[in-house]
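Suppose you are handed only these lines of text.
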Amino acid sequence: MIEKIEKLMAEIEALQAANAEEAEALRIKYLSKKGEITALMNDFRSVPAEQKKEVGMRINQLKAAALDKINALKSQAAAGSQQCACIDLTRSPYPIHLGTRHPLTIVRNEIVDIFSRLGFTLAEGPEVEDDWHVYSSMNFADDHPARDMQDTFFIESHPDIILRSHTSSVQARVMEKNQPPIRVICPGRVYRNEAISARAHCFFHQVEGLYIDKNVSFTDLKQVLLLFAQEMFGPDTKIRLRPSYFPFTEPSAEMDISCHLCGGKGCSFCKHTGWVEILGCGMVDPAVLEAGGIDSTVYTGYAFGMGIERITNLKYQVKDLRMFSENDTRFLDEFVSAN
Ligand code: PHE
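From them, the structure of the protein bound to phenylalanine can be written out as follows.
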């Protein structure tokens, strides 16, 4: 009898049921009136008196174990079928999650839009460039530090072929194909050999502007940039130009806008100065015009270049540059685009 109980106990422990019906069949097999454990209890009568205590205890244990196990199998099966019931085949597939434009694309489009209203047309150039278009034609001296490995990505075995480190290379490409009047806006990706952090990345995006014609002056440049700043950051935005240096412009300047978060009063965003830097600009150096095949005694021009990430950070206060390239949809979904 004890042996039989032990055999049944092992059987019970190993029981499996794929669904509720199989679990019920097991209950019938072991615990119904004609079940195996019920039969054991009926046999109990013939157990010798001195074994009754031990056998009785074991049968009770077996019965309890069987009940527990079969109930557990039943609730498992019920949970499983509930999961199936969760798939509602009648549910409408709409609205479909369409995604949004990338914030950098939204801002790029906005910048291009503002300048196209001022008569600028779109021009683009290759990201894999040669030294001439990125540096030499832009009046960089042979030993200019920007050519250094620390800034520029070189293509191995082709020291003349590089990843462009600024969109000024598109200026060179436009000039070699066109004579003034030239009025272009050139958005694109650029690469610099920098360690990736919250504030720097090995690639980012710029927009270059170039205007060449007779009698183009610094006043024209200033007025266009003021209009851009006010369209982009609101009509109360002020601009300030600080003298600077770029090999391809003379004179050169860096432009700040009044901090749109504190209205110029000073806050932690503008480091309590009331101003934030947004772009570099200047009058095209005559040497650059000549390199592009344009007569610098007849024509003058201005150029400017800005980082799209920078403008986007100012507009949306994105604190970490890496967010732009991580493809985290929780971040991207915050930018519902109109265009
Ligand atoms: N190319 C410059 C840069 O990458 C920006 C610039 C463009 C400055 C055009 C002046 C004129 O920082």
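What can we learn from it? Residues 166, 168, 208, 246, 249, 280-282, 303-305 surround phenylalanine (CB under 6 Å). The longest strand covers residues 203-213.
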